[in-house]
Write a structure and sequence with these properties.
There is one protein chain. It contains 14 helices and 5 strands. By secondary structure, it is α/β, with parallel strands linked by helices. α4 packs across α13. The radius of gyration is 23 Å and the shape is globular. The chain starts with 10 loop residues before the first helix and ends in an 8-residue tail after the last helix. The structure holds adenosine-5'-triphosphate (ATP) and magnesium ion. Adenosine-5'-triphosphate binds next to α7.
């Protein structure tokens, strides 16, 4: 990675930058009018984005080293988006300064039969990051109130008791998700929720790119085009989800994603803000251990090879 020429961002400045993307708990979000997917802030030019992102990645790397040494908190980054919104690129660029041992990415696809034999949060619980590390959910437990809501027949395959499939299922799932996240936060898992918000027109352009460029064909599937036909239903499901599950302890951020460079920067600032809030510290050794270390140092120094005489 190239050495970033820009100075690290101080927390107050960083907070100010990410504030517009945070969904206020209890607010009545109107996705279409409240959040512009094409937004980019004018204090960062596209030409400065690479070095700003490198700076953010380096800062994240330093915080993760302290997070690991402290071994008390984990950070869970929840990434949700429509197809082609840039989840994979965001993960790659935002985390490239972090020690690979301290980060894990888990992608959630259509559940396997074994997963369907458990409650709907089970597979997400099993994939949580351990203390000291950063875990990314590439799609997440929120699919359970997104794709499953847009295609309610999926619910029929979840082997649920009849009462769990009644009309209030989504309201109940929001509550259960909020309760689960509250439990995680209470137990040291800090949660960063990012919705990469892309416009329908930008998705159309990116799909066309994926069809036109042979090297990108693999990124496109017929299923993506089919899901696009449900665009409005997805936007509605996202909107409901944002209203119901942006909480004080785990707020949502709607990241404008039509400009890839800006989405990556904003995501890196939002994750950094949580790490700054945790402010993990290297553990200090107690006086007795310090004495032991001094003794060992003496021994090691005494073991130094004698200078050879020529
Ligand atoms: P990419 O296309 O970049 O590889 P992706 O996340 O879109 O990434 P896909 O394999 O294309 O990965 O799609 C995974 C699919 O799995 C999505 O359509 C998603 O909605 C679906 N999925 C995820 N979780 C669930 C769930 N709990 N129930 C049903 N479908 C789900
Ligand atoms: Mg896909």
């Amino acid at each position: 990675m190239t050495k970033p020429p820009t100075a690290p961002l101080a927390r107050p400045k960083l907070r100010k930058r990410i504030e517009p993307f945070r969904v206020k708990p209890g607010s009545d979000v109107k996705l279409e009018s409240d959040f512009d997917p094409g937004f980019k802030e004018d204090f960062v030019a596209k030409s400065d984005a690479t070095s700003a992102l490198a700076e953010g990645a380096a800062q994240l790397g330093e915080y993760q080293a302290r997070l690991a040494a402290q071994d008390t908190y984990a950070v869970l980054v929840v990434l949700q988006a429509m197809d082609a919104a840039g989840k994979d690129g965001t993960i790659k660029h935002v985390l490239n300064g972090v020690n690979p041992q301290g980060v894990g990415v888990r992608s959630f696809k259509v559940p396997e039969p074994t997963e369907l034999q458990h409650d709907f949060l089970w597979r997400y619980q099993c994939a949580l990051p351990e203390r000291g590390s950063i875990g990314i959910f590439n799609r997440s437990h929120y699919e359970e109130v997104l794709v499953v809501r847009v295609h309610p027949d999926i619910l029929d395959n979840q082997h649920l008791p009849a009462a769990a499939k009644k009309a209030d299922v989504w309201k109940r799932r929001y509550r259960e998700i909020n309760d689960w996240e509250r439990y995680l936060v209470d137990n040291g898992v800090r949660i960063v929720k990012l919705f990469l918000h892309i416009s329908k027109e930008e998705q159309r352009q990116r799909f066309l790119d994926r069809i036109d460029e042979p090297d990108k064909n693999w990124k496109f599937s017929v299923g993506d085009a089919l899901e696009r036909q449900h665009w409005d239903e997805y936007q509605h499901a996202y909107q409901q989800m944002l209203c119901a599950t942006s909480t004080r302890y785990a707020p949502w951020h709607v990241v404008p994603a039509d400009h890839k460079w800006f989405a990556r920067l904003a995501a890196s600032w939002i994750i950094l803000d949580t790490l700054m809030d945790i402010d993990p510290q290297f553990p200090k050794v107690d006086p007795k251990t310090r004495e032991q270390l001094a003794d060992i140092k003496k021994q090691l120094t005494a073991e130094a090879p004698k200078e050879s005489k020529n």
